[in-house]
């Protein structure tokens, strides 16, 4: 029989790549979201406010998935609110499905803030030694990732499903209107620098500029998620999920610049975050979009200055070890430079950038 997948957060960078992967492999895919973004063609779309338990229960009536994939969060004013809201979203879906989850697989996507702590707690705890390993456990700080994990664990005890947790680094993939979209933000930034003659300055910290880093291609993460849904060795395990190569931004930045036909600026004397110097970007992008017939003239629907600043502004080196995943049988790999180039080519083909 055809396997049934439920993706919670299907319109995001991860959800879209996962849906496309599952469809290629013959799954029937249902997506549950707030309805703010487009759902990949071929998927059945359900819409609900995930914080509303009654609405979620009504939306999922009759759905009996073989696998559920959570890739969803809603940014709140502080981490205590993040915990309350984002934990409830996971719990509401699990409770709505209830006994229909018996024997199924439930996967949760979190990220490296598992090791680093949330944005508001960066540098306040003892950051584990790099590369981060799953055995290093949790930081002693409030973190909505932990709350979501706890909901997954409690549901497994109650309803008898197997689970997996996946921790990517920065996601590189295609999805419009998504807050966690550094690749697209950098593509828009580089385009503005080329068109307006602005310097292509790395907006992050010296630690990120000089330190070792890694990222996660959305397609690679989708591959790991689908593997974990069926592999016996992946049951009830947590896994890092990165491309498999490492780099330094002082190596990658000039190569991204070269793709757009511009020069990479030297690292500045002090950090120069994007959010503080992109005031002219709104009008500049509108002009470019109108001139070249791009599909979106509102730059706020394309970029996430704040999130890219936070990602690249970390005051510590951040990269992960993939040994646990490899030993369990997942051997996927993606070149990071290729991942960026493939995204940029997709953005051109979709008329998002000129």
UniProtKB/TrEMBL annotation:
Keywords: Plasmid. It comes from the Bacteria. The keyword Protease does not apply. SUPFAM superfamilies: NAD(P)-binding Rossmann-fold domains. Transmembrane segments: none annotated. Residues 66-354 form the PRISE-like Rossmann-fold domain. This is NAD-dependent dehydratase. It comes from Pantoea phytobeneficialis.
